[in-house]
Write a structure and sequence with these properties.
Blueprint: H1 5-10, E1 16-18, H2 27-35, E2 40-43, H3 50-58, E3 65-70, H4 71-74, H5 78-87, E4 91-95, H6 100-108, E5 112-117, H7 120-128, E6 133-137, E7 143-144, H8 150-160, E8 165-168, H9 174-183, E9 187-190, H10 204-212, E10 218-221, H11 223-227, E11 238-241, H12 244-249, H13 253-256, H14 260-272, H15 295-311
Parallel strand pairs: 1-9, 2-3, 3-4, 4-5, 5-6, 6-8, 8-9
Antiparallel strand pairs: 7-11, 10-11
Helix pairs in contact: 2-15, 3-5, 9-15
Length: about 325
């Protein structure tokens, strides 16, 4: 069994956290990750209600779970934080903005706090905010992310803090997990590897799209956010599978901001499931996701393969 500061803190049997992917990671996916000994997370989007949080957090029952919140959303929707605290998760991530105003209330409720970081300044802010876990999220990650690659960012973060650091972005196999653990990470934060799991909230068509994609088929873009008139801060674009819409509008976001017809096309596509116009967020590791498997099986295989890879590390010093 792999033992790290993360597994000891949350009583896990594997240092794997399921990324709180809004629209994909609900209670069922979180429970499936936790059944494998990791920590499943539930993703909360800006259009979710407190009832959504309550309902999804009830699904894992006695299993440990976490909740992912976005700081820029909480600034205007404090009721989402209140519902999260009432659900008593083991961990809450507060990312994409300043976590400081939310750490105190969470700690007062006995809940640990994680924050995703994408720059050195983010690390300093997170440490000053007294968070418990830092997630070094590289630009290889799916969904909203920064512009730094995982491995260089991870090395800088590890040099800046003694807090448990979890690596995120581009990790979808046991080899990848072993690599960041050997580098000093306390665990991994996986999202793309779970995009084809039947427990996800995404559609069967979206899962099939993920399985058919290659690692070269993603784009880091603000086009989908601009089209939907979302208030995502500009510094965090989203990595998604390329489709007709992104090929037409990526790099033309200023023009897109004034094109109501194109904007409505994405809004309608999200309702209808048109994947040529709506975003399917996925990271550069998507080419490694080729089968529909339970998240429990994905995490168990990831862990077993990581253990196997780590056993070979001493041979390098022979």
């Amino acid at each position: 069994m792999i033992t790290t500061a993360l597994t000891r803190r949350f009583d896990l049997s594997t240092p794997v956290i399921g990324a709180p992917m809004a629209g994909v990671a609900g209670g069922a996916l979180a429970a499936a990750v936790s059944r494998a000994g990791g920590l499943g997370m539930i993703g909360v989007a800006g259009n979710h209600s407190p009832d959504f949080i309550t309902e999804q957090c009830a699904i894992p029952e006695r299993l440990p779970f976490g909740v992912g919140l976005m700081a820029w959303v909480l600034d205007d929707r404090p009721e989402l934080l209140e519902a999260t605290i009432a659900a008593r998760p083991a961990l809450v991530s507060v990312s994409f903005g300043d976590p400081a105003p939310y750490v105190g209330p969470l700690h007062d409720a006995g809940i640990a706090v994680a924050v995703q970081v994408n720059t050195v300044d983010d690390v300093h802010r997170a440490v000053a905010s007294d968070v418990d876990v830092i997630v070094a999220q590289g630009s290889e990650a799916g969904g909203h992310t920064g512009h730094r690659a995982t491995l260089p960012l991870l090395q800088e973060v590890l040099a800046l803090t003694d807090l448990p650091v979890v690596a995120a972005g581009g990790i979808a196999t046991g080899r990848g997990m072993a690599a960041v653990l050997a580098a000093g990470a306390a665990g991994v934060w996986i999202g793309t590897a779970l995009l084809s799991c039947p427990e996800g909230l995404n559609s069967p068509a979206a899962r099939a799209r993920v399985r058919a994609a290659a690692g070269e088929d993603t784009v880091l873009t603000r086009a989908f956010d601009v089209a939907q008139r979302l208030a995502w801060p500009e510094r965090w674009p989203g990595r998604a599978l390329e489709n007709e819409f992104s090929r037409a509008w990526h790099g033309r976001e200023d023009e897109l901001a004034h094109d109501d017809v194109a904007s409505q096309r994405v809004v309608d596509a999200r309702r209808s499931g048109d994947l040529e116009q709506a975003p399917v967020y996925a990271g550069e590791a998507v080419g490694l996701v080729t089968a529909e498997r339970s998240a429990t099986d994905v995490v168990r295989t990831l862990t077993e393969d990581a253990e196997r890879a780590l056993r070979t590390v001493p041979d390098l010093l022979g």
